[in-house]
């Protein structure tokens, strides 16, 4: 008679993105025996960094929230501190400079009153509406900042936090079903200013205001003035590296080049994982930091092929079909990582920029262009006399499918050249100042990040009531949890850190590991 082996691990986390690493490190700090399995060579996923020819490039965005020093929304600061780690950061004086149609240029100053003054100077007839709209965002932020952000699936946590901050809880509940567009139109009527609010949302949610939850906007539009945008010295990948150090310092482990192919399910419950090598590992709980499309069966990728999910069709819960009707994958990106002459960068140039020539192209293929130059904050990321320029623009997999190797190379070259030509509008002479150039496509993002279609994350397929339909961390399969941007509250490093805190708290409650009292 064969006996089932006892679990070696309390928790196995599939994927070392920031959401997975926060979950794993938080659980290790609670005393759980945790293993992270990462298919690639480095941690962080789209929040990682890579090195080439003396440059340290961020895989994804360099505009980082969550490194404030006060309140409860500084989730990256808190996640690192909980495992004895700290990131040195450089404050950014402006979140972002917009270069928009009709000569609408706005730099979002770190000082809230200065930002309002700058925007009001462009729309003096909307002075009251501008303040009323952004003050409403502050109402949301203050509710979030008044309470430890843990699992909304834990009734004990909800009771304790309500006892501590009843007004903040009630205020937050009021905003959960609300989208930004409704609030903006309540206070603002100028169509050009409403377009600007659309772009304020699109720059981090890749959705216009009508589809962007007010909870997320309250966090982003206020935290950039409260905690501010703070860049981690050494590059964004340092965050993941320090979370790994904290995980290992608390008895956890991480394995690289360990691609999970299946969640092992017995009697309806997740009991472990199977690797591509055929090795099986058992755990009391399993966490997927993959997207929901990569976790559960049912979604063909944009090339028409069905990628092998972690959970087969026979075990995929019906709730996942409902989720797929509500949410669709956002596009991936065409990205440029350039090493350029510092001489081409004018004095006073901001670190982050967004460029759009025509409003009609905001949601179009390669419409909006994002630019980051993190060496303006941390010169050590590039050789002397050089800067990093990272630019990316939304691009869907369908435009890159079915190409021969030669056609693929030619399209990469042509699209990159066109993007560089557009960037000359804010950096004249850029084309002749490039010393290092790497081009990434949706196929690159799918290959290296293991995300279906290389997608940035889920966006509403229809207009939804704010964050109410967004799933939390428990799935309908016993013992299986999800974390990352497919879970509440969505995309962005600080948002997936929230998801990681929540997932670790929910598992901690299920395993009896959580302390009775709330964090300070």
Q: Please, could you describe this protein's structure?
A:
The protein is of the alpha/beta class. Helix content is 34%, strand content 21%. It contains 15 helices and 20 strands. The strands form five sheets. Strands 1, 2, 9, 10, 11, 12 and 20 form a seven-stranded mixed β-sheet that branches. Strands 7-6-15-16-17-14-18 form a seven-stranded mixed β-sheet. Strand 6 and strand 7 (104-109) form a beta hairpin. Helix 1 runs parallel beside helix 15 and helix 4 (127-145) packs across helix 9 (214-228). The N and C termini lie far apart (51 Å).
Write the layout of secondary structure elements.
Blueprint lengths: L8 E6 L3 H12 L4 E4 L11 E4 L2 E4 L16 H7 L7 E3 L2 E7 L3 E6 L2 H11 L4 H19 L9 H10 L1 H10 L4 H8 L3 H15 L8 H15 L1 E3 L4 H13 L3 E3 L4 E7 L2 E7 L4 E9 L3 H4 L22 H9 E3 L2 E10 L10 E4 L13 E4 L13 E10 L9 H19 L10 E7 L1 H8 L8 E3 L19 E3 L10 H18 L10
Properties at a glance:
520 residues, 15 helices, alpha/beta, globular, seven-stranded mixed beta sheet, single chain, 20 strands
Q: Termini separation (Å)? A: 51 Å
Overall pLDDT confidence: 92
Strand content: 15-25%
Overall form: globular
Radius of gyration: 22 Å
Low-pLDDT residue spans? 300-306
What profile does the largest beta sheet have? 7 strands, mixed
Count of strand segments: 20
**Helix share, percent:** 25-40%
Secondary structure category: alpha/beta
Separate helix tally:
15
